[in-house]
Structure formats: C-alpha cells, structure tokens
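Order emerges. For instance:

***
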Amino acid sequence: MKKIQNISSTDTFTVRNLVLRIGKPIESCKFDGDNLPTTKHFGLFINEKLVGVVSVFKNKNAIFNIENQFQIRGMAVLPEFQKNGFGKDLVNHCEEHIKNKNRTLIWFNARENAVPFYKNLGYNKLGNPFSIADIGIHYLMKKEIG
C-alpha cells in the first residue's frame, strides 16, 4: 500500500544519503532551513517502508519577480523503487500542498540527469548549467502553479 505523509527533517536523511549524498557523511543530508516552520517534508511509504522523500521550502529566488515562491529540495526515491512513478507522486503532492497555500511558483536546482523527468512534469529549464561542488551539474527549473 502506497501513502504520502508529513515526516520530520531527520526522517529524510537516510533516503537523501542513499540517493543524493552517496558516500558522504549523514550530516551532509541536513539542509539550511530544514527545521523552519514554513518547511514541509513529505515521505512516500510502500507497506510502511519509507522509499521516497521531498522537502518544500518557502524560499524566494531573486531571479523571479513573483512574491510567493517555494523551492523543492532533497527529492529522492530509493534506487530499487525508481521508475515506478513515485517521484512524480511526490512532486504532484508538493504542487497540491503549494496550491492549497495559494502559492504561485515552484523552483529548484535539478541535477542534469533529472532534467527530463522534471520537463515531463511541466517544469522549464532556465539559463546555463552550473556546478554544485561535490555534487555535479545542475539547471535552474521552475513552474508556475495556480
């Protein structure tokens, strides 16, 4: 049985570590803003096992001239559960959460290999690629909601 529910920031660390911070210390999975009251963390569970996570931060990017902005970070699905639509389920859950808050923009820095996934969900790639130290090439992506 599949369900998505609110989880704590520390609940995200194991999945973040196994997918996004491979070989790095678990402490590298803590993001600035994880524990702000405006930040929400969601976990996707299959038969009570946490297999995917995503976090939504109220965070304004100065590039965009829109007041209400949220950033998706730490989107990760365990490798053995990928290619089953669970990532799409998590992103859609974030969009519904933001719509319910009357927010208007989602943005994030997508890893180069994740760009096609996000494009299929209606996100647009902006500008040139850039590198995040020890992680790799990323693109800024966005989608207006509502």
